[in-house]
Amino acid sequence: MRDIFNNIKGFHMFKERTDVPIMSLNGIEHNYQWFFKFDNGSGASVIQNGIAYVDNIKEFEIAEIEWNKDGRWNLVFTDICQDGVLGHCSFEEILEVLNKIESK
Q1: What are the C-alpha distances in Å from 16 to residues 29, 38, 48, 101?
Q2: Secondary element (H or E) of residue 95
Q3: What is the pTM of this model?
Q4: DSSP codes joined into one string, 14-71
Q5: What torsion, rounded to 10 degrees, do the Cα atoms 51, 54, 56, 58 define?
Q6: By three-state DSSP, how is residue 1 classified?
Q7: Is 10 helix (H, G, I), strand (E, B) or coil?
Q8: 20: Cβ–Cβ under 8 A, 6 or more apart, which residues?
Q9: Phi, psi (deg, nearest 5) at residue 91
Q10: Integer distance in angstroms from the first to the last C-alpha of the chain?
Q11: At residue 71, does pLDDT exceed 80?
Q12: 31, 20 in Cβ contact below 8 A?
C-alpha cells in the first residue's frame, strides 16, 4: 500500500505520519500521506488514515495544495476541491483529480 502512488507522474514523497496519533473512526490503523508536486506549482496531498473522509482501506482523501519556494505547502480551494478536500475517492478517482490539478 505504501508504494501505490510511487510511479504516478508528479509523485514527490511518501510519509508515514508518526507525529499524529492513530484515532480510528473508520477501522484504518495507519497514517499514510502521499505528496505530489507538479511543474505548475500545484500539487496534492493524498491521505489514508483513521480520521480521513474514507470508509475503508480502498478509499482515499485528496486535497489540492500549492507549493511554496521554501518547500512548504498551503491548502487551496479551487473548483477541483471546492471544500478543501475530496473524500471517499477510489484510486482511479485520485488519478483523475491529480490529472486535473496538473493540467490547470
Answers
A1: 12, 21, 10, 23
A2: helix 91-103
A3: 0.83
A4: EEE--SS----SSS----EEEEEE-TTSEEEEEEESTTSS-SSTT-EEEEEEEE-TTS
A5: -120
A6: coil
A7: coil
A8: 31, 49
A9: -60, -45
A10: 28
A11: yes
A12: yes
- Rounded to an integer, what distance in angstroms lies between the CA atom of residue 49 and that of residue 6? 18
pLDDT tens readout for residues 30-64? 778 899 999 998 999 998 877 788 888 889 999 99
Contact 1, 16 (CB under 8 A): no
- The x, y and z cell numbers of residue 43, run together, are 500539487
User: Rounded to an integer, what distance in angstroms lies between the CA atom of residue 76 and that of residue 74?
Assistant: 6
- Residue pair 13/35 in contact (Cβ under 8 Å)? The answer is yes
C-alpha dihedral sign at 77, 82, 84, 87: negative
